[in-house]
Amino acid sequence: MPNRDPQPQATSTTNATKDVGLIVIGDADDAQLVAVLQRIPEAFRRRVLTIVASRVDTVGVAGLPALAAIHVDEDAAYGAVLKAAYRACLDAGCTVAVTLHAAGEYPPEVLQEMLRPIDEGRADAVFGTRNVELLAAVEGGMPVYKFLGNRVLSTLENLLVRTPLSELHSGYRAITANALRAIPFEKNTDAWHFDTQVILQLHAAQLRLAEVPIGTYSSDEIGVLNGLKYAAEVARSVADYKLHEVGLKSSSAWEVRAQYAPKRSSYSSHARLLELIAGRNLRVLDVGSGYGELAAAIQAAGHTVTAMDMYEPRVPVAEFIRADFSVDIPLASDRVFDIIVLADVLEHLPDPGKTIGQLLQHLADDGAMLVSLPNAVHWSVRAHVAAGRFEYTNRGILDRGHLRFFTTKSARRLFRDAGLDVVRHVTTPVPWENVSRRHAGSAAFRALELVDVGLGKVRPNLFAYQHVFRLRRQTAR
Questions:
Q1: Which of 96, 324, 367, 476 has the fewest CB atoms within 10 Å, counting from its CB?
Q2: What's the CATH code of the domain at 63?
Q3: Which pLDDT tens digit goes with each residue over 72-125?
Q4: Residues 277 and 330 reside in one and the same domain
């Protein structure tokens, strides 16, 4: 039962006038700044609602609406300036915020092109990419060390975080206000790698990212030594994000939107549950249906599905019942189902025994209840405890929404006390596909998964990531 708290949905801006917040950032003398601002296309100028800049008088000289300008501290760190600037754009009612570097690192002439994917409803954030060859980059003014560092970092990041971006270190970007509201950007660093953290948050929020090619002039804002520090901080942020994503670490910066990725592995709990549904044209009650991925798979197998949750699933089902089933099961007394599914649900409930008892009243005499539960004594949890940590995470065994924790023994005791016998018990491996979805189908990942499956059979309490049970009513003894 994934967390389904309503979140602001990112939408595109309209092509109305006065909707853009222009953020002018970076060091430049007055003459250089004016020269850059005067290159802004007229069509873009007409859309500027407010300007966030360190020197508002210079902005006025450049022919932009100085009276609408908001001052930010030019001596503050890069990330701190952008936090204040994004907040100022949101407070001013802008529908999109665009960053432009004062020193001319990025061409103002393409500002209107940067807005096009947003205006056409194709993107929630757009990045200007300098994806060019080395010779062109050097001719454009980008130092060789900076070009190579950019390429290496972007390549490594995309190996771990699969994004549609060829360059992840461009400061030239347009982000919709709704996208900014959907991410906790104010929890990010005040340093240079703020921009990287924003991309990771947008990616985690499943927002649409697009690129617009730009020329390659580069000021030397980050020197060689600072560049090494920047690279280390970027690598640390990406590693921190991945650990949070797979549920091995908790970090407030990545608490973006509760995600519930479809489980595609043939050894996942969803696949295991489908294996345990024996029969044809069965009446199935999916309790805690979430986004509906499992319900859709059950329907595709030819069964009739009734979904029950607080939020409607994304897929159409024969029947949907909106309910807080942790409190009560709103079913007529004569409603009976052949299969009742509780996929990753019981651990979220204050009294799982009570819920099972209520559902048992609606299970056919020869029916089955299917349950999947995380293994509270998996080796990863034991490692955390051995290291003196017990931190809730964004998902996984220590998901912050879990109220109950089960071992094989305690799960079987719960079922026995509720009047159920275990007919079959299978296990699942670690969801390795979440570590890198790009490589999930590779031979190496497949081998790793098979080894984990084998270990789970030998020592389920230690190596099983989840336990999956098929249950039936207790027979007279």
A1: 476
A2: 3.90.550.10
A3: 666 678 898 899 899 999 998 899 999 998 877 888 999 999 999 999 888 999
A4: yes
Which residues have C-beta within 8 Å of that of residue 181, sequence separation ≥ 6?
A: 8, 90
Does a structural domain hold residue 192? yes
Residues 297, 212, single domain; the answer is: no
Domain check: are 303 and 432 in the same one? yes
| DSSP letter assigned to residue 399 | B
* Statement: residue 418 has pLDDT above 50: yes
Q: What is the extent of the structural domain holding 366?
A: 269-473
Kind of pairing between the strands at 283-287 and 69-71: unpaired
Backbone phi and psi for residue 107, each to the nearest 5 degrees, phi listed first: -75, 120
Residue (of 20, 10, 16) closest to 85 by Cα position: 20
Tell me the CATH number at 290: 3.40.50.150
Q: Per residue in 286-330, pLDDT tens? A: 999 987 889 999 999 999 999 999 888 877 889 999 999 988 899
| Conformational region of residue 257, where left means phi above 0, alpha means psi within -120 to 50, and beta covers everything else | beta
φ/ψ (deg, to 5) at 244: -65, -40
- Separation between Cα atoms, residue 290 and residue 299, nearest integer Å: 15
Q: Which of 62, 60, 64 is nearest to 47 (CA)?
A: 64
Output phi, psi for 337, to 5 deg. -125, 150
- If one counts the domains in the chain, the total is 2
294 shares a domain with 249: no
Count Cβ atoms within 10 A of the Cβ of residue 306 and give its class: 0-12 exposed, 13-18 middle, 19 or more buried: buried
- Sequence-ordered strand ranges (E) for 125-192: 125-129, 173-176
